[in-house]
Amino acid sequence: MESSSGTPATRATLLSFDRAALAARFVELGLKPFHAKIARAAVLEKGITDYAAMTSLPAAARELLSRELPILSSTEIGRRVAADRTTKLLLAFPDEARRSATVETVHIPARDTTSGKGATLCVSSQIGCPVACPFCASGRAGLVRNLEMHEILEQYVRGRALGELSRSVVMGIGEPLLNFANLSRALDVVHDEMAIGSRKVTVSTVGFPDRLRRIAPEKPRFQLAISLHTPDQEQRDELVPAMKGVAIEELLAAADDWFEKTGREVTYEYVLLAGENDSAGHAERLAQRLARRRCTVNLIPFNPVDDSGFGRPTEFAVDRFHQRLIERGIVATVRWSRGVESDAACGQLRVRSARA
Ligand code: SF4
Q1: For site-directed labelling of 118, which of 24, 45, 272, 285 has its Cα 20 to 30 A away?
Q2: pTM as predicted
Q3: What does pLDDT average to in each consecutive run of 10 residues of the chain (356 residues)?
C-alpha cells in the first residue's frame, strides 16, 4: 500500500482505521465491534495508549490486541518540560528509507489553571519542511516525507495523555497545505471524536492561493492563519522561499475569498526578526496592505534558532510595531512564545537531537 505522499506506508495501527474499518478489523481478529468502540474511545477521548489500561475490555482481548494491533507507531525519543510546564515531545516515526523521521509536538497548558480550560497542542504536519524559511530550524534539511493521517492523529493522542486539550494549532513542523488530504482526515477525527471544535483548531500556512481557493468552498473545519512575515515583496521572497513569485496581493486576495466563502476571518502571522522586519516602516506598510480587511495580526517575537543569523527584537521594538498597527486600526496581538528556555523555537529540539 502506498501513502498519499508516495512513501511506503508504515504498519497499520488502531488509528489508521476509521470507525467502520476498525470494527471490521476487530471482527477479523475474532472480537466484537463494540470492543473496537471501547478501544477507540479510550485512545481518542482519554489518551490511553496501552491496552492493559483498558479494563473494560476482556483480558484475552487486551492480550490479543497488544500483539496484533499497535495503538501508536511513533516512539517518544525526547522530552523537554519548561518552567511554565510547556512540554515539547520529540517523536520518531518508522521510516523505511531510514532517514531522520522525527517531528515535534508541543503541549502548552492554559495560563490560568483555575479557568477550567485545557491545553493548546501544537502539531506537525510533515517530517521536515520544503518551504525552507531561513529563520526556521525545521526547514533546514528540507522535506523528508508527509505524515500519514494516523501519525498526525497520534500527536493529539499523546497530547491528550499529557492533559485535557481545548485547542490545537497546526503550526509545528511542515507546511499543512502540502499534506492537506491526510491532515483534513485527521482533523475530522479530532473534531468528531476528540470533541475539539472547529473554531478551536487553527491551521497555519504560508498560503498557496490556488490551494486556498480550492479548499474554501468545502468549508473546512478550522480557522486559517497565514504566515506573512513582511509587507514587502522582495523580502517575502527571501523569508518564505517556496512562495517566491507569488505576489502578496494575490495571496491577500485569496485570503479575502476565503473569508467570503467560509465566513471566518483570517489571522496573519508575523514573526518579528530584529532589524529585519520590525521597523516602524514595516508596520506602516503592513497596515496599508491590510487596511479595510477584517483580520487579526498575530505578532510573534522571534525565538532564536542556533546559527540562523536572526535575532529576537527588543520589547521596545515589539511594542512600537504593535502600537503602530493599532493606531492604524489593525487588530493585532503579541504572542510571546512560551517555554523559551526549553528549545521553544520550532524544530530546535529536532535539529539538536539529529546532531547529537
Ligand atoms: S517556518 Fe513553517 S513553513 Fe517555514 S520552514 Fe519552518 S515549518 Fe516550514
Answers
A1: 272
A2: 0.91
A3: 44 94 98 98 96 97 98 94 92 77 92 78 95 88 93 97 94 96 97 95 96 94 96 97 96 97 96 97 98 96 84 95 98 80 54 53
State the cell numbers at 154: 497520534
Centre of ligand 1 to C-alpha 112, Å, is 30
The DSSP H or E segment spanning 155 is helix 149-162
Distance CA 271, CA 291 (A): 20
CA of 349 to the centre of ligand 1 (A): 15
Beta pairing class for 119-122 and 102-108: antiparallel
**Is there an atom of ligand 1 within 6 Å of 128 CB?**
no
Q: What is the CATH number of domain 14-68?
A: 1.10.150.530
| 207 close to ligand 1 (CB < 6 Angstrom) | no
Domain parsing of the chain, residue ranges: 14-68, 75-355
Point out the ligand 1 atom lying closest to the alpha carbon of residue 173. Answer: 7
